[in-house]
Amino acid sequence: MLGTGHALALRGLTKRYGSFTAVDSVSLKVERGEFLTLLGPSGSGKTTILMCIAGFVAPTEGAVLLDGQDITPLPPERRDFGMVFQGYALFPHMTVAENVAFPLRVRKLGAADRDAKVRAALDLVQLSGFAERLPRQLSGGQQQRVALARALVFDPALLLLDEPLSALDKKLRAELQEELKVLHRRVGRTFVNVTHDQEEALSLSDRVAILNHGKLVQEGAPAHLYEHPRTRFVADFLGKSNFLHGEVRESVPGGFVIGAGPTRILQAVAENHRPAHGSRVLLSLRPEKIALLAEEDAADNVVMGRIAAWSYLGAGYTLVVETPDFGALRVALPTWQAPIAPSEGLAVRLGWSSTASVPVVEDAA
To answer: 161 with 201: CB under 8 angstroms?
Structure first.
């Protein structure tokens, strides 16, 4: 539940290294108790922002505010933030309990209170029976749980997570994503997470901030970002997308028609977002929103093509269909909905609704 943690705000945050701008005037708010993920490719500035929040990197311009108070000048030890690193950063010569107790020892907490907090933190991450083990006796997932317990044991104002799951294999990463989401709900703290993994960002976060070349490109709830990307970069980075170029041929009630060669595509759009006649438009169309039509099936938009490649993924097929006017279109099709068995060279009809695609803008070069 939101509202039990602390609120964070970045105001015009900029970090330059010589002539290189790593973070370019980023302003962002994180609500109390929110799980926010900074998402972007390598070099997008997300880790630099996290280090500025933690106090390990001083911004060139701008400010970091906690509950409205400017904490930019404060060193890391005075910010009282918990942090979980990609590499765990556990002390190899200390037991699990000693590792978790370390922040409390630094704060000179009494032995009885310290032991009680360590037990509670290990219970929280389901490691109560591992207190006397050394890190080398734990799996990667267990080590990451210890790191989480250590970061939470002193009741930090914020929990900062620097790609905490990236060192784990795919199955374990998925399991810990679920556990981390439950943990966030239980502790009610404000979490700020950094990742380049789109699936992780979508599954964990209350809100996602997408970065590219040091700039904040778009932020919002995961479903909103996925369904309503503003730019080609967001549509392409957050999941997979097909891109349809065309010219606006006519306006129709509730939308407009674009043309690419002889093909006409109906696009639904709000009246106040209707593009001008003759203008060039770019549409983003998710692969899972394209159907493979039988001969008698109807759809708002129908395109003919031939299967150039296909893959069987158990729960579904991935098809690459070559079309005359839009080039190769990727189609994600649930196995149980496939009207035919895919094969290379097979002629197919593709169809989608007028609301399936979304107009996006090309990113600035």
So the answer is: no
CA distances from 12 to 23, 29, 44, 57 (A): 10, 11, 16, 15
Contact between 86 and 77 under an 8 Å Cβ cutoff? The reply is no
Domain count, the chain: 2
Distance CA 326, CA 261 (A): 9
Looking at the structure, do residues 209 and 318 belong to the same domain, yes or no? no
| 200 and 92 part of one domain | yes
Cα 350 to chain center, whole Å? 30
The kind and range of the H/E element at 29 are strand 20-30
The pair of three-digit structure tokens given for residue 151, joined into one six-digit string: 């970061």
Of 199, 228, 257, the one marking the end of a domain is: 228
pLDDT digits (tens, 9 = 90+) for 93-125: 999 999 999 999 999 999 999 999 999 999 999
SS percent in the chain: helix, strand, coil, step 5: 30, 35, 35
Residues 297 and 214 in one domain: no
Please give the model's pTM, rounded to 2 decimal places: 0.89
54 with 123, same domain: the answer is yes
Is the Cβ–Cβ distance between 326 and 260 less than 8 Å?
yes
Q: Name 39's bridge partners.
A: 195, 210
Which H or E run includes 60?
none
Contact (CB, 8 A) for 96 and 138: yes
Tell me: do 37 and 171 sit in the same domain: yes
Which one-letter amino acid corresponds to residue 59? P
Q: Which structural domain range is residue 294 located in?
A: 240-246+277-360
Q: Is residue 290 part of a domain?
A: yes
Whether 165 is covered by a domain: the verdict is yes
209 is a domain residue: yes
Q: Tell me the pLDDT tens digit for each residue of 289-323.
A: 999 998 888 889 999 999 999 999 988 999 999 99
